[in-house]
Amino acid sequence: MASLVCLLLLPAATSSASGRLVPYDLLYADGVRAYFARDWGRAAELLQRALYSYAGLRAARRACRDACLREAAFLGEPPAAGPWEAALFDRVLQRADCLQHCLGSRLGVAPSAHRASLVIQRDFERREPYNYLQVAFFQLKKLDQAVSAAHTFFVANPQHLQMREDIEKYRRMSGVKSDNFRDLEAAPHWEAYEAGMQHYNADEYLQAVDRLEESLREALSALEECRALCEGPLEDEEKEEEDLQPGLYEAIAGTHYIQVLKCRQQCVLEIATKPGWISATEDFIPSHLDLLQFAYDQVGNQALAAECAASYLLFYPTDEPVLEKMKQYRAELGEDTAVTARENIRHYVQRSLMEKKLIYYATEHLGGTFNDPVRLLIQSLLTSVLTSPTGSLPFEGITVTMDSQQMNGTQRVVFDRVLTESECKDLLRLTKAARGTGDGYRARRSPHTPHERFEGLTVLKAMQLAQNGDVDWRDAKLLLQASEKSRKIIESYFTPGKKLYFSFTHLVFSSPGEPFSYHPVHADNCLLDPEGKECWKEPPAYVYRDYSGILYLNDDFQGGSLFFTEMDTVTVTANVHPKCGRLVAFSSGKENPHGVRAVSQGRRCAVALWYTHSAEHAEQERVKAEELMEQRAAEENQPDGEEYQRADHNSRSSPEPLVPSGGARLTSQRHKSVSERTQHPKELRARDEF
């Protein structure tokens, strides 16, 4: 960023009359217009001013946050004679007033003028302005600046084929120097980290200590900047207008504040992800301390080595090798020498723990989900918050085998003993009788993988088969009862007091076809984009799904286990092995990417379940199946009201089609592969059209 500021210190970036910082999205839109008008000089000027304004806005927010933390601190006890609420909100109002005045004076305009659309924000995060700039500079015959702009964009977008070709062309051009290929947005902590690792791997420990200490300082500084930027406006794009607006405390606790806390937790991943990389560097902050303790030990500074080791143990308190090193350091330094962790690291850990506790409490008691970006051993301190479910289970004998903490995620749970062995056998008999007559994919290859055959029954098809005498009525009825029992369990655990409707119910049975493969990782209500670390809630995904479940009927097969991953679809966080009566349930969003390993031998049978809070998307095949069941009961004069409670369906809609969201193609422009894009950056519309 320092290189960028030096390059872009243009007087025109602010209004000369008032020192006003022009909003970067306005400058960007004007720069792109000039670009497509082939006014290269003006395009280059405006795009550079936009980048300068963007950097200036981030710096102002960081500086004002730091200043107002001191000026309007939340310290001290409320006055004994006054109510705590007035004392609390008095300080909140002071902080808000401080931020408004600070930003207004630094920006020269109301802070609201700098609220750009999400489209523009993403463009700057992905360094799109440099894509335009490199062309403009090339046309202006400013080759050195064109190369720097191209390289800066390519570092963050290494899969961009057109830019890859441009970079190769630049390398072959006469007059282009190797120094021109520099990253104008290079993060200081990454430059220091890579230099430190080079010295470390070359056993140059004195130099390694200097650069790794610099990297740690810069990383913590970048973390604070990221946290400051989290304190922006509430983002609630998915909220429906007809929803009831929350009250004062619900709005504060359940929406904006928790959004800010979640954003702050994600900052750890942001600073640990090198530009252009999909995944973050594992244990980025703790690894600095581990490397430093070894390097300090090698140069003979056992005091600092012990300090770094003590700091590392705040993250991993049971790490045996480091605990052994601590014993060694204490012996060398003497038992009277106090060895303590660094205060800034202690503050970092304690603050993170406090925020995690608040987030987990909110998700468990107020709803919502949280995909914890950092799962360290310090999270054992959160057990009291994480292990208790939100509601009591409505049936006796059911056990919670794994909860969210044990599954390294959020809104995940495994129940056992939902069905008896006898009930599993009855439903398995239903699958055998229905084989070849089901409605899965008509015994064709599974759409998830070409190496597995897939068949299945909907509840309506099961009832129709029973009506025709192809299967036993009692088995078809058991399918309805077992799925309803699962719905009540999931509803009581995750959303007590809030109705869950069936979205789709499917008795599935799959068997091996060819060599071992697996169902690709996907999310159930959005289109997973691992490279962009996004999950787009748009068709053809079933965006109305809220919770998912799988009720297993057998385990006499090989393969077929369920697994959860990170957003990168590669890092496995939990595995669930099938067995009779086991129910795994989870929220359907991006916080729970999952896949299924293919069956390599035998036959896997399970009831796949999806649920929604939206009555208009309730499963209508189920309504018809229940009507057939009631007709059958009336014919036999055996009312089923006490034995099976019919789900409440307040709305009718067409049944859900069988198209797995994980295999859906991305058709919108932002999902296209780089090879599908044109040579030039995409055109932007004016700000008022965003």
From TrEMBL:
Residues 673-690 have a biased composition (Basic and acidic residues). One of its GO terms (cellular component) is endoplasmic reticulum. Pfam families: 2OG-FeII_Oxy_3, TPR_leprecan. GO terms for molecular function: iron ion binding; L-ascorbic acid binding; procollagen-proline 3-dioxygenase activity. SMART domains: P4Hc. The keyword Flavoprotein does not apply. InterPro entries: Leprecan_dom, Oxoglu/Fe-dep_dioxygenase_dom, P3H, Pro_4_hyd_alph, Pro_4_hyd_alph_FE2OG_OXY, TPR-like_helical_dom_sf. GO terms for biological process: collagen metabolic process. The keyword Repeat applies. Residues 1-19 form the signal peptide. Its EC number is 1.14.11.7. Its cofactor is Fe cation; L-ascorbate. Residues 202-229 form a coiled coil. Residues 630-690 are annotated as: Disordered. Keywords: Coiled coil, Dioxygenase, Endoplasmic reticulum, Glycoprotein, Iron, Metal-binding, Oxidoreductase, Repeat, Signal, TPR repeat, Vitamin C. Residues 501-613 form the Fe2OG dioxygenase domain. Belongs to the leprecan family. This is procollagen-proline 3-dioxygenase.
